[in-house]
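Quick illustration, no need to memorize.
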Amino acid sequence: MAVIPAPAVVDALRRRRGPSRATWLGIALFSPALVYILALVGLPLVLAFLYSVGDVTVGSVGYRFVGLYNFRSVLASPAFRRALLDSFVFTISSQLVVIVCANALALALRERFRGRGLVRFLVLLPWVAPVSLGAIGWKWLLDSIYSVVNWVLAQAHLVNRFDPPMWLGQPALAMASVIAVHSWRMIPFSTVILLAGLTSIPKEIPEAAAVDGAGFWRTHFQITLPMMAPIINVAVLFGVVFTFTDMTVVYILTRGGPYDTTQVLPSLAFFTGVLGSDLSEGAAISVFLVPILVVVAILMLRVAHRAEIA
Protein backbone atom coordinates (compact mmCIF):
# COMPACT_ATOMS: atom_id res chain seq x y z
CA MET A 1 0.00 0.00 0.00
CA ALA A 2 1.51 3.34 -1.10
CA VAL A 3 2.01 6.01 1.50
CA ILE A 4 1.15 9.58 0.44
CA PRO A 5 3.57 12.06 2.05
CA ALA A 6 2.07 14.88 4.09
CA PRO A 7 2.16 18.45 2.63
CA ALA A 8 4.64 19.53 5.30
CA VAL A 9 7.03 16.74 4.29
CA VAL A 10 6.68 17.70 0.60
CA ASP A 11 7.45 21.36 1.34
CA ALA A 12 10.49 20.34 3.40
CA LEU A 13 11.80 18.19 0.53
CA ARG A 14 11.30 21.04 -1.95
CA ARG A 15 13.17 23.50 0.25
CA ARG A 16 16.01 21.00 0.61
CA ARG A 17 16.28 20.64 -3.15
CA GLY A 18 16.58 24.41 -3.59
CA PRO A 19 14.68 26.87 -5.80
CA SER A 20 12.34 25.42 -8.37
CA ARG A 21 12.48 26.01 -12.12
CA ALA A 22 9.67 28.54 -11.84
CA THR A 23 11.67 30.51 -9.27
CA TRP A 24 14.77 30.55 -11.49
CA LEU A 25 12.62 31.56 -14.47
CA GLY A 26 11.16 34.45 -12.49
CA ILE A 27 14.63 35.61 -11.45
CA ALA A 28 15.87 35.38 -15.05
CA LEU A 29 12.92 37.40 -16.36
CA PHE A 30 13.24 40.04 -13.62
CA SER A 31 17.03 40.46 -13.88
CA PRO A 32 17.12 42.61 -17.08
CA ALA A 33 14.66 45.09 -15.59
CA LEU A 34 16.67 45.23 -12.35
CA VAL A 35 19.94 45.78 -14.22
CA TYR A 36 18.28 48.50 -16.33
CA ILE A 37 16.99 50.33 -13.24
CA LEU A 38 20.31 50.09 -11.42
CA ALA A 39 22.38 51.18 -14.43
CA LEU A 40 20.23 54.06 -15.70
CA VAL A 41 18.55 55.26 -12.50
CA GLY A 42 20.32 53.93 -9.43
CA LEU A 43 23.93 54.65 -10.44
CA PRO A 44 23.31 58.27 -11.59
CA LEU A 45 21.31 58.93 -8.42
CA VAL A 46 24.14 57.64 -6.22
CA LEU A 47 26.68 59.71 -8.17
CA ALA A 48 24.49 62.79 -7.82
CA PHE A 49 24.44 62.42 -4.03
CA LEU A 50 28.21 61.83 -3.95
CA TYR A 51 28.96 64.83 -6.18
CA SER A 52 26.60 67.09 -4.20
CA VAL A 53 28.71 66.65 -1.03
CA GLY A 54 32.07 66.83 -2.78
CA ASP A 55 34.25 69.18 -4.79
CA VAL A 56 34.06 67.84 -8.35
CA THR A 57 34.43 69.72 -11.63
CA VAL A 58 34.54 68.65 -15.25
CA GLY A 59 38.00 67.19 -15.87
CA SER A 60 38.92 66.80 -12.20
CA VAL A 61 40.59 63.52 -11.22
CA GLY A 62 40.22 63.68 -7.43
CA TYR A 63 37.37 63.82 -4.95
CA ARG A 64 37.24 66.00 -1.84
CA PHE A 65 34.38 65.80 0.65
CA VAL A 66 32.97 69.26 1.49
CA GLY A 67 29.76 68.32 3.34
CA LEU A 68 26.82 70.68 2.90
CA TYR A 69 28.83 73.53 1.37
CA ASN A 70 27.27 73.10 -2.10
CA PHE A 71 23.75 73.11 -0.67
CA ARG A 72 24.41 76.30 1.28
CA SER A 73 25.87 77.90 -1.83
CA VAL A 74 22.86 76.89 -3.90
CA LEU A 75 20.34 78.14 -1.34
CA ALA A 76 22.11 81.49 -1.20
CA SER A 77 21.92 81.90 -4.98
CA PRO A 78 19.14 84.18 -6.31
CA ALA A 79 19.18 82.19 -9.57
CA PHE A 80 18.28 79.00 -7.68
CA ARG A 81 15.41 80.65 -5.80
CA ARG A 82 14.08 82.08 -9.04
CA ALA A 83 14.39 78.71 -10.80
CA LEU A 84 12.58 76.98 -7.90
CA LEU A 85 9.70 79.46 -8.15
CA ASP A 86 9.60 79.14 -11.94
CA SER A 87 9.53 75.34 -11.62
CA PHE A 88 6.38 75.49 -9.51
CA VAL A 89 4.76 78.06 -11.81
CA PHE A 90 5.70 76.01 -14.87
CA THR A 91 4.44 72.75 -13.37
CA ILE A 92 1.20 73.95 -11.79
CA SER A 93 0.14 76.13 -14.73
CA SER A 94 0.86 73.51 -17.36
CA GLN A 95 -0.92 70.78 -15.39
CA LEU A 96 -4.03 72.91 -15.01
CA VAL A 97 -4.10 73.45 -18.77
CA VAL A 98 -3.38 69.78 -19.45
CA ILE A 99 -6.10 68.40 -17.17
CA VAL A 100 -8.79 70.75 -18.47
CA CYS A 101 -7.95 70.15 -22.14
CA ALA A 102 -7.43 66.41 -21.68
CA ASN A 103 -10.79 66.12 -19.95
CA ALA A 104 -12.54 67.89 -22.83
CA LEU A 105 -10.74 65.76 -25.44
CA ALA A 106 -11.50 62.53 -23.57
CA LEU A 107 -15.21 63.41 -23.46
CA ALA A 108 -15.20 64.17 -27.18
CA LEU A 109 -13.24 61.07 -28.20
CA ARG A 110 -15.44 58.79 -26.11
CA GLU A 111 -18.36 59.33 -28.51
CA ARG A 112 -18.56 57.40 -31.75
CA PHE A 113 -18.27 59.42 -34.95
CA ARG A 114 -16.87 58.99 -38.42
CA GLY A 115 -13.10 59.42 -38.48
CA ARG A 116 -12.64 58.92 -34.73
CA GLY A 117 -9.59 56.73 -35.30
CA LEU A 118 -7.89 59.43 -37.37
CA VAL A 119 -8.72 62.09 -34.79
CA ARG A 120 -7.28 59.92 -32.03
CA PHE A 121 -4.10 59.47 -34.05
CA LEU A 122 -3.76 63.21 -34.59
CA VAL A 123 -4.35 63.88 -30.89
CA LEU A 124 -1.60 61.42 -29.95
CA LEU A 125 0.85 62.78 -32.51
CA PRO A 126 2.43 65.48 -30.27
CA TRP A 127 3.27 62.83 -27.66
CA VAL A 128 4.54 60.26 -30.16
CA ALA A 129 6.67 62.70 -32.18
CA PRO A 130 10.18 63.53 -30.86
CA VAL A 131 9.96 66.38 -28.39
CA SER A 132 12.99 68.11 -29.89
CA LEU A 133 11.36 68.17 -33.32
CA GLY A 134 8.14 69.62 -31.95
CA ALA A 135 9.95 72.22 -29.84
CA ILE A 136 12.06 73.35 -32.81
CA GLY A 137 8.88 73.75 -34.85
CA TRP A 138 7.33 75.86 -32.12
CA LYS A 139 10.50 77.95 -31.88
CA TRP A 140 10.11 78.79 -35.56
CA LEU A 141 6.40 79.55 -35.11
CA LEU A 142 7.21 81.93 -32.24
CA ASP A 143 10.29 83.51 -33.83
CA SER A 144 10.54 87.26 -33.39
CA ILE A 145 11.04 87.89 -37.14
CA TYR A 146 9.53 84.95 -39.03
CA SER A 147 6.70 84.10 -36.61
CA VAL A 148 3.70 82.58 -38.37
CA VAL A 149 1.64 83.28 -35.25
CA ASN A 150 2.41 87.01 -35.45
CA TRP A 151 1.62 87.00 -39.18
CA VAL A 152 -1.80 85.47 -38.57
CA LEU A 153 -2.52 87.88 -35.73
CA ALA A 154 -1.41 90.83 -37.86
CA GLN A 155 -3.65 89.71 -40.75
CA ALA A 156 -6.54 89.54 -38.29
CA HIS A 157 -5.63 93.09 -37.09
CA LEU A 158 -5.11 91.82 -33.53
CA VAL A 159 -1.50 93.02 -33.24
CA ASN A 160 0.58 95.74 -34.82
CA ARG A 161 2.62 94.20 -37.65
CA PHE A 162 5.39 96.76 -37.05
CA ASP A 163 5.53 96.03 -33.32
CA PRO A 164 4.59 92.35 -32.92
CA PRO A 165 4.82 90.48 -29.60
CA MET A 166 8.23 89.05 -28.72
CA TRP A 167 6.98 85.64 -27.62
CA LEU A 168 10.37 84.35 -26.49
CA GLY A 169 11.95 87.72 -25.67
CA GLN A 170 9.61 89.14 -23.02
CA PRO A 171 9.54 87.48 -19.58
CA ALA A 172 5.78 87.01 -19.23
CA LEU A 173 5.27 85.94 -22.84
CA ALA A 174 8.28 83.62 -22.71
CA MET A 175 6.93 81.77 -19.67
CA ALA A 176 3.46 81.59 -21.25
CA SER A 177 5.00 80.21 -24.46
CA VAL A 178 6.98 77.56 -22.61
CA ILE A 179 3.88 76.51 -20.65
CA ALA A 180 1.78 76.38 -23.83
CA VAL A 181 4.29 74.25 -25.74
CA HIS A 182 4.80 71.85 -22.86
CA SER A 183 1.03 71.56 -22.37
CA TRP A 184 0.64 70.83 -26.09
CA ARG A 185 3.08 67.97 -25.65
CA MET A 186 1.53 66.54 -22.44
CA ILE A 187 -2.17 66.77 -23.34
CA PRO A 188 -2.21 63.54 -25.44
CA PHE A 189 -0.70 61.51 -22.60
CA SER A 190 -3.29 62.70 -20.08
CA THR A 191 -6.06 62.30 -22.66
CA VAL A 192 -5.29 58.60 -23.05
CA ILE A 193 -5.36 58.09 -19.27
CA LEU A 194 -8.63 59.99 -18.80
CA LEU A 195 -10.20 58.29 -21.81
CA ALA A 196 -9.43 54.92 -20.25
CA GLY A 197 -11.08 56.11 -17.03
CA LEU A 198 -14.17 57.32 -18.88
CA THR A 199 -14.64 54.05 -20.75
CA SER A 200 -14.43 52.10 -17.45
CA ILE A 201 -17.49 53.89 -16.02
CA PRO A 202 -20.63 51.74 -16.48
CA LYS A 203 -23.04 53.30 -18.97
CA GLU A 204 -25.98 52.53 -16.69
CA ILE A 205 -24.93 55.19 -14.16
CA PRO A 206 -25.07 58.28 -16.44
CA GLU A 207 -28.14 56.85 -18.18
CA ALA A 208 -29.92 56.54 -14.82
CA ALA A 209 -28.91 60.12 -13.98
CA ALA A 210 -30.33 61.30 -17.32
CA VAL A 211 -33.61 59.52 -16.59
CA ASP A 212 -33.77 61.32 -13.24
CA GLY A 213 -33.45 64.64 -15.10
CA ALA A 214 -29.75 65.40 -14.61
CA GLY A 215 -28.17 67.38 -17.44
CA PHE A 216 -24.70 67.04 -18.94
CA TRP A 217 -22.90 69.41 -16.59
CA ARG A 218 -24.55 68.04 -13.44
CA THR A 219 -23.82 64.47 -14.50
CA HIS A 220 -20.24 65.34 -15.35
CA PHE A 221 -19.37 67.21 -12.15
CA GLN A 222 -21.40 65.16 -9.66
CA ILE A 223 -21.01 61.66 -11.12
CA THR A 224 -18.30 61.36 -13.77
CA LEU A 225 -15.53 63.41 -12.16
CA PRO A 226 -15.90 61.88 -8.65
CA MET A 227 -15.76 58.39 -10.14
CA MET A 228 -12.69 59.37 -12.17
CA ALA A 229 -10.85 60.95 -9.22
CA PRO A 230 -8.29 58.11 -8.86
CA ILE A 231 -7.58 58.17 -12.62
CA ILE A 232 -7.21 61.95 -12.60
CA ASN A 233 -4.79 61.71 -9.68
CA VAL A 234 -2.66 59.23 -11.61
CA ALA A 235 -2.61 61.55 -14.64
CA VAL A 236 -1.67 64.53 -12.47
CA LEU A 237 1.03 62.55 -10.65
CA PHE A 238 2.71 61.45 -13.87
CA GLY A 239 2.30 64.93 -15.34
CA VAL A 240 3.91 66.60 -12.33
CA VAL A 241 6.85 64.18 -12.35
CA PHE A 242 7.39 64.58 -16.10
CA THR A 243 7.05 68.37 -15.97
CA PHE A 244 9.14 69.02 -12.87
CA THR A 245 12.03 66.97 -14.26
CA ASP A 246 11.80 68.13 -17.89
CA MET A 247 14.08 70.74 -19.43
CA THR A 248 13.79 69.99 -23.15
CA VAL A 249 11.19 72.62 -24.00
CA VAL A 250 12.91 75.29 -21.90
CA TYR A 251 16.33 74.47 -23.33
CA ILE A 252 15.23 74.58 -26.97
CA LEU A 253 12.89 77.57 -26.79
CA THR A 254 14.51 80.03 -24.37
CA ARG A 255 17.55 78.40 -22.70
CA GLY A 256 16.21 79.84 -19.47
CA GLY A 257 15.96 83.41 -20.73
CA PRO A 258 15.25 86.20 -20.92
CA TYR A 259 17.11 87.10 -17.72
CA ASP A 260 16.55 83.61 -16.23
CA THR A 261 12.79 84.19 -16.11
CA THR A 262 12.05 80.76 -17.60
CA GLN A 263 14.84 78.89 -15.88
CA VAL A 264 13.70 75.72 -14.08
CA LEU A 265 15.64 73.44 -11.76
CA PRO A 266 16.60 70.78 -14.35
CA SER A 267 17.84 73.37 -16.84
CA LEU A 268 19.68 75.30 -14.11
CA ALA A 269 21.37 72.07 -13.00
CA PHE A 270 22.41 71.35 -16.60
CA PHE A 271 23.77 74.84 -17.24
CA THR A 272 25.59 74.88 -13.90
CA GLY A 273 26.94 71.36 -13.84
CA VAL A 274 27.63 70.59 -17.52
CA LEU A 275 28.05 73.88 -19.34
CA GLY A 276 29.42 75.65 -16.25
CA SER A 277 31.72 72.69 -15.39
CA ASP A 278 30.68 72.77 -11.71
CA LEU A 279 29.42 69.20 -11.29
CA SER A 280 29.09 69.49 -7.51
CA GLU A 281 26.78 72.48 -7.52
CA GLY A 282 24.82 71.09 -10.46
CA ALA A 283 24.35 67.82 -8.57
CA ALA A 284 23.23 69.72 -5.47
CA ILE A 285 20.55 71.47 -7.54
CA SER A 286 19.41 68.13 -8.95
CA VAL A 287 19.20 66.57 -5.49
CA PHE A 288 16.65 69.22 -4.49
CA LEU A 289 14.26 67.61 -6.97
CA VAL A 290 14.19 64.31 -5.06
CA PRO A 291 12.41 65.39 -1.82
CA ILE A 292 9.99 67.61 -3.74
CA LEU A 293 8.92 64.77 -6.03
CA VAL A 294 8.72 62.30 -3.14
CA VAL A 295 6.39 64.63 -1.22
CA VAL A 296 4.24 65.20 -4.30
CA ALA A 297 4.01 61.45 -4.97
CA ILE A 298 3.04 60.67 -1.36
CA LEU A 299 0.35 63.36 -1.31
CA MET A 300 -1.14 62.31 -4.65
CA LEU A 301 -1.16 58.62 -3.71
CA ARG A 302 -2.87 59.41 -0.41
CA VAL A 303 -5.54 61.42 -2.20
CA ALA A 304 -6.05 58.59 -4.70
CA HIS A 305 -6.31 56.04 -1.88
CA ARG A 306 -8.93 58.12 -0.05
CA ALA A 307 -10.91 58.54 -3.28
CA GLU A 308 -10.90 54.76 -3.80
CA ILE A 309 -12.09 54.14 -0.24
CA ALA A 310 -14.85 56.75 -0.58
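The chain has a mean pLDDT of 83.
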